[in-house]
Amino acid sequence: MYFLYSIAKHLVLVPILALVATQVLLIRRVSSLNMTNSYLNHKCLVSQGKYKPGSVHEKSLEAIIHSISVGENVNSGYDMMSFGDGPDLVCVILQCRGDSYGSKCRSCFASAMAGLRRRCPRYKGGIIWFDQCLLEISSIDTVGQLNYDDSFCMSNAKNVGDNPYLFILKWDTLFDNISRIAITEKNKNFKDANKPALYGAGEKRIGTKRKMYGMVQCTDDLSVKACQECLVSNILKFQDCWKSGKRGARVLGRSCNFRYELYPFVNAKTGPNSYLKS
């Protein structure tokens, strides 16, 4: 991982029933390549308090939910909207996985919003992670800011078995290579031709019969420098979780995430940039 280690480190109000109907209809999809859209984790930001039914805050949130649900930004896999100021500020950030945009991103948004509301009822702030998207609701403007606090690691219960040291070296190399892709290649799904992808995915052969599959991603509100810093911070912070020869592991956060498995979990043909094979 020498490349990374070298771094110093809108709105229309709609009835609630219409929103519920939209969320029920947008059912999560499961593909043949283990590309599920399972719920992973959530965090209620209790320090931000709760809003009251019928309040300005709730109406602003409903308006943003509707705008994202029917808007075109999900076609690129990312959307951010905010409304109000002071105690009534509502900021919503949706980041879908690099290979999940358009209808898949819209569907994941519906699942995530319904899940967050159920698990953090009326909280002004909360984050929820699904396989194919991240959703944050906040009464604080967090756009472009690195969040080092809300991160966690999940790993496979089984070990790789033979030669775990070699396995870790393979992941080191793959992580470095797909991280380089994430910050140097442009995102073909954005109208802005200069927008960095902040997403990288690929595979690397392990011996003659197995392959390792990996992915890294940062939220699109980050700069390239912030993305680099986030990935470095998380891979160091959680090395006890992934650096033990596990067959698979992932680190998820508000600002960035990475994952490796011994099976394909992203669509190699639908990402915003090139897919690495080595």
Give an account of the 3D structure.
This protein is of the alpha+beta class and 278 residues long. Helices cover 31% and strands 24% of the residues. It is built from seven helices and eleven strands. It has helices at residues 2-5, 16-25, 56-70, 103-119, 164-184, 224-237, 239-242; strands at residues 39-44, 78-83, 90-96, 126-130, 133-138, 151-155, 199-206, 210-218, 249-253, 256-261, 275-277. Helix 2 (16-25) crosses helix 4 (103-119) and helix 3 packs antiparallel against helix 4 (103-119). The protein is globular, with a radius of gyration of 19 Å. It starts with a helix and ends with a strand. The model is unreliable at 1-34 (pLDDT under 50).
List keywords for this structure.
278 residues, alpha+beta, 5-stranded antiparallel beta sheet, 7 helices, 31% helix, globular, disordered N terminus
Question: How many beta-strand runs?
Answer: 11
Total of DSSP H or I helical runs spanning 4+ residues: 7
Question: What overall geometry do the principal axes of the alpha carbons give?
Answer: globular
Binned strand content: 15-25%
Secondary-structure-derived class: alpha+beta
The order of strands across the largest sheet is 6-9-10-8-7-11
> Distance N terminus to C terminus?
16 Å
